[in-house]
C-alpha cells in the first residue's frame, strides 16, 4: 500500500516538531507548549505510524523515552533501564476499567475469576531520579535521560533534605530507589517571587519559571550546586531499580506494596496516598477521590498511577516497547492549556486601580473553563508581552486564579494551520475606561489609578459592594448583580441613596420579586445599627483595613474627632504611619466625603460613640498564627478577629516564622507543614486558652 504524500509530509513535520519540543522540555527545561499539546502531537504521530508501519524508523520520537544528556554532567548507564509508563488519556472513570480489562485479557482471566490486586499511587509531576545506595550509603543519583543513559546529578540531589544519605543497617547491600523529584507549589511561588525581585534589580541571566516541574528540573540539572541548593526540592519514592537478589541475601518481596512499605521503613519518603485496590471499581473510586483532593495537595500531580501489585504477575505481563503492561498512568484534566487572547480589557477596582485582564477563547484547564486571566499591571503585561491574537499557555493549578504562563512564540509550529496575527504591544490607557478621567501612575507604584473617585461608576459600584460586605455594614443580599442594576440603571448614585430606596424602585428592577425586594429593605434597615469600626472600614478609605479602623475608633472614640484630626494627631495612633495618616486626612478633607457621612447619619445609620480608651493589652503581640480547617464553633473571621484583637498577626501560610497553627476539621497541607516544622498546633480550645492566658499556656504538641 503506498502512503499518501500528505501523510509522509505530516509524519516528517510531526517528527521535527516533537524533536524540537522534546529538546526544549528535556534538555533546556524551557518548554514552549503545554504537555497536553505535546501529547496530542505525539499521539498523532503514533497513530500515523500504527496505520503505516513501514514509516516507523528507530530514531522516531515515539521510539525513545525522551531526554538527552546535557553537556557537563557525567553520563550514567542505568543498570536496569528506566522505563516509561503508558498513559490512559481517557480522563473518565472508564480509563481505569480499560486498564483492568487489558490486564485480565493479557493474563487470560475469565470474567468469573477473582479481581486483580492493584496499588494506586499519585502521579507526581516532577522528574524521575534513580538513587543508588551501596552498603546503605547513597553513592549516586541520576536522571532518567533516554532511559538507558542518564546524567550524574548526585551533588544537586544531595541538597534535598528529605533524601536519606545513609540507610539503616538492615537494607540490602545494593539498592536503587526510583522516584520523583518535585517542587511544592508554595516553594515554587516563593522561588519565583525571589526571581522577580532579582530581575527587578537588574540581575542578568535570571528567569521566572513557568511551573513547578520546570523549576525542579532546572534545579536538578543546574551545573552549579550552590545555586541548586537555593532551590527548594522535595522527593517521593515510587519504585526500585537494581537490588541485591534474594539468592545473594536481598529481600524476598512478593508485592509492590510490600516494597514500598520497606522503602518507607528505611526512611525514604513514600506518599501517604499510596493504597492497595482490588479490581477496576476500587481504581475508579481512587481516581475520583484523588481528583477531588487534587487542588488541596501542596504539589502538582497530573494523574494517578495503577500498578499490578503481585511482582510475579508483573513479570508475567512484561513489557511492550519500553512500557510495562502492568502499569498505567490515568490522567486528570491538564493544568496548562493553550488558547488565544481575544482582547485585553482594563478593569477598574474600588480604589480606582486599573488592572489589565486578558479575555481568552474559553479553554478547559485544571478542571474549569477559563475565559479571563489577570495580567496584574502594565509591567507584568509588558514582561510577558501578551498581545491580542497571541496563542498563550494558561495555567490553573491548586485552586488559584488562572495565569498566563507565556506566549507561544512559534504558534505556527504547533499546528501547521495556525497563522498568528499579533496585535501591537499592550499599553495602559491614560484615561479611565469607565469614566474617562485621567489615569495616573505615581512614582514607585506599579499601578495606574483612575482619578475620578466616586464620579467613576466602576469605583461607585466597588465602593458600594465594599460598604455592604459582611465585615463592614453588612447588608445581606446586596451583591454584585444588584449593584450593577442599581448603578447602571441610575437608580442610585451614592452610598446614602441606598437608604432612600423604596419598595417600588426595588421591585421594578428586572428579575426582582416583591419578596426579595422586601428582604433587601429589611436588610438595609438592620444594617443601620452598626459600630464605629465597621462604619469606618466600610467607607473604603485607602489603607484603612479592619484592624486600622478598630485602632482609630478606640483611640478617638468618636467619628467627629477622627474627621477633624490633623495628620500629627492621626500619627499618634499605634500602627498608623505617615501614608495611612495622610490618606485618612485627605479623605475627610474632601467636602463630598463629609457630605456622604452626614447623609448616612441623617438616614439613620448609627453606632454607639465612646470615650478614647488606652490600647488594650496585646498578649499576642509579635506572634504569627495560621488558621486551617474548620473549627467546631468559631468561624474563620471570628477567630481572626479575636487573634488580631490580641495583637497577633494572622498569616496565610506556614513557615519557620509561624508561632501557632490553629487546626480544625479537614485541616490539610498547612497542618502537615506545621508538624514537619515543629510548630505548635492548637485546636479551638487551645486557641481560647491562648487568648485568655497568653503564650505561657502549655500547648499540645
Ligand atoms: S512508575 C515502570 N509511579 O511518570 C514504571 N512513575 O513515564 C515506571 N511518575 O517520568 C514509572 N509518579 O517519573 C511511576 N507513582 C509513580 C509516578 C511515576 C510520577 C513519573 C515518572 C516517569 C513518568 C512515567
Which helices and strands occur, and which strands form pairs?
Elements: H1 5-27, H2 35-51, E1 75-77, E2 87-88, H3 94-106, E3 117-124, E4 127-134, E5 137-143, E6 149-151, H4 154-157, E7 174-182, H5 185-200, H6 212-220, H7 225-229, E8 234-243, H8 256-265, E9 275-278, H9 279-293, E10 301-308, H10 311-317, E11 319-320, E12 323-324, E13 327-331, E14 336-348, E15 353-365, E16 368-374, H11 378-384, E17 391-395, E18 403-407, H12 411-414, E19 439-441, E20 448-450, H13 457-468, H14 480-488, H15 495-498, H16 503-507, H17 514-527, H18 532-538, H19 546-556, H20 559-563, H21 567-570, H22 578-589, H23 591-602, E21 624-628, H24 636-645, E22 649-651, E23 660-663, H25 669-677, E24 680-682, H26 684-693
Parallel strand pairs: 2-13, 21-22, 21-23, 23-24
Antiparallel strand pairs: 1-6, 3-9, 3-10, 4-5, 4-7, 7-8, 10-13, 11-12, 14-15, 14-17, 15-16, 15-20, 17-18, 19-20
This protein binds 2-(butylsulfanyl)adenosine (IVH).
Amino acid at each position: 500500500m503506498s502512503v499518501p504524500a500528505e501523510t509522509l509530509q505530516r509524519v516528517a513535520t510531526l517528527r521535527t516538531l516533537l524533536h524540537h519540543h522534546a529538546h526544549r522540555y528535556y534538555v533546556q527545561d524551557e518548554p514552549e507548549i503545554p504537555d497536553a499539546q505535546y501529547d496530542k502531537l505525539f499521539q498523532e504521530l503514533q497513530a500515523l505510524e500504527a496505520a503505516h508501519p513501514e514509516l516507523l524508523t528507530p530514531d522516531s520520537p515515539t521510539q525513545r523515552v525522551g531526554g538527552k544528556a546535557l553537556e557537563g554532567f557525567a553520563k550514567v548507564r542505568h543498570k536496569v533501564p528506566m522505563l516509561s509508563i503508558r498513559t490512559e488519556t481517557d480522563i473518565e472513570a472508564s480509563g481505569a476499567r480499560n486498564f483492568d480489562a487489558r490486564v485480565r485479557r493479557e493474563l487470560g482471566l475469565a470474567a468469573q475469576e477473582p479481581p486483580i490486586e492493584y496499588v494506586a499511587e499519585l502521579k507526581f509531576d516532577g522528574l524521575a531520579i534513580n538513587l543508588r545506595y551501596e552498603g546503605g550509603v547513597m553513592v549516586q543519583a541520576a536522571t532518567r535521560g533516554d532511559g538507558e543513559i542518564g546524567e550524574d546529578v548526585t551533588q544537586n540531589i544531595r541538597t534535598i533534605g528529605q533524601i536519606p544519605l545513609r540507610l539503616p543497617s538492615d537494607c540490602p547491600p545494593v539498592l536503587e530507589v526510583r522516584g520523583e523529584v518535585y517542587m511544592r507549589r508554595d516553594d515554587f511561588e516563593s522561588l519565583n517571587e525571589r526571581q522577580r525581585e532579582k530581575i527587578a534589580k537588574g540581575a542578568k541571566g535570571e528567569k521566572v519559571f513557568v511551573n513547578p516541574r520546570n523549576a525542579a528540573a532546572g534545579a536538578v540539572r543546574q551545573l552549579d550546586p550552590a545555586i541548586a541548593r537555593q532551590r527548594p526540592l522535595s522527593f517521593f519514592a515510587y519504585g526500585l531499580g537494581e537490588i541485591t537478589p534474594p539468592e545473594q541475601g536481598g529481600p524476598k518481596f512478593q508485592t509492590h506494596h510490600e516494597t514500598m512499605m520497606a522503602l518507607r521503613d528505611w526512611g525514604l519518603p513514600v506518599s501517604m496516598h499510596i493504597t492497595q485496590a482490588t479490581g477496576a471499581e476500587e481504581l475508579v473510586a481512587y481516581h475520583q477521590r484523588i481528583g477531588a483532593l487534587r487542588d488541596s495537595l501542596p504539589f502538582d500531580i497530573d494523574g494517578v498511577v495503577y500498578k499490578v501489585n503481585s511482582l510475579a504477575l508483573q513479570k508475567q505481563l512484561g513489557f511492550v516497547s519500553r512500557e510495562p503492561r502492568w502499569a498505567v498512568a490515568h490522567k486528570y484534566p491538564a493544568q496548562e492549556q493553550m488558547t488565544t487572547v481575544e482582547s485585553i480589557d482594563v478593569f477598574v477596582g474600588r480604589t480606582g486601580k486599573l488592572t489589565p485582564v486578558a479575555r481568552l477563547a474559553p479553554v478547559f484547564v485544571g478542571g474549569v473553563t477559563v475565559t479571563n486571566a489577570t495580567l496584574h499591571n502594565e509591567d507584568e503585561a509588558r514582561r510577558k508581552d501578551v498581545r491580542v491574537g497571541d496563542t498563550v499557555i494558561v495555567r490553573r493549578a491548586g485552586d488559584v486564579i488562572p495565569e498566563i504562563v507565556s506566549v507561544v512564540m512559534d504558534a505556527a509550529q504547533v499546528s501547521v494551520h495556525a497563522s498568528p496575527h499579533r496585535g501591537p504591544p499592550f499599553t495602559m490607557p491614560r484615561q479611565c475606561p469607565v469614566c474617562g478621567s485621567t489615569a495616573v501612575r505615581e512614582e514607585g507604584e506599579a499601578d495606574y489609578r483612575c482619578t475620578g473617585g466616586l464620579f467613576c461608576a466602576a469605583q461607585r459600584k466597588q465602593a458600594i459592594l465594599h460598604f455592604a460586605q459582611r465585615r463592614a455594614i453588612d447588608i445581606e443580599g446586596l451583591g454584585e448583580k444588584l449593584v450593577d442594576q442599581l448603578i447602571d440603571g441610575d437608580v442610585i448614585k451614592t452610598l446614602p441613596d441606598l437608604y432612600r430606596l423604596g419598595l417600588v424602585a426595588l421591585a421594578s428592577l428586572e428579575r426582582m420579586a416583591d419578596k426579595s425586594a422586601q428582604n433587601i429593605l429589611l436588610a438595609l434597615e438592620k444594617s443601620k445599627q452598626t459600630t464605629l469600626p465597621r462604619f469606618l472600614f466600610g467607607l473604603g478609605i485607602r489603607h484603612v483595613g479592619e484592624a486600622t479602623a478598630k485602632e482609630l475608633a478606640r483611640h478617638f472614640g468618636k467619628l467627629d474627632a477622627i474627621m477633624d484630626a490633623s495628620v500629627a494627631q492621626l500619627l499618634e495612633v499605634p500602627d498608623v504611619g505617615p501614608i495611612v495618616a495622610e490618606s485618612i486626612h485627605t479623605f475627610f478633607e474632601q467636602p463630598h466625603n463629609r457630605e456622604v457621612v452626614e447623609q448616612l447619619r441623617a438616614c439613620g445609620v448609627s453606632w454607639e460613640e465612646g470615650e478614647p480608651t488606652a490600647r488594650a493589652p496585646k498578649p499576642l503581640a509579635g506572634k504569627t498564627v495560621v488558621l486551617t480547617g474548620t473549627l467546631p464553633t468559631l468561624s474563620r473571621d471570628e477567630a481572626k478577629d479575636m487573634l488580631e484583637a490580641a495583637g497577633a498577626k494572622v498569616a496565610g501560610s506556614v513557615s519557620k516564622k509561624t508561632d501557632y497553627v490553629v487546626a480544625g476539621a479537614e485541616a490539610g497541607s498547612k497542618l502537615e507543614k506545621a508538624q514537619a516544622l515543629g510548630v505548635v498546633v492548637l485546636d479551638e480550645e487551645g486557641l481560647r486558652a491562648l487568648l485568655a492566658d497568653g503564650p505561657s499556656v502549655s500547648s499540645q504538641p
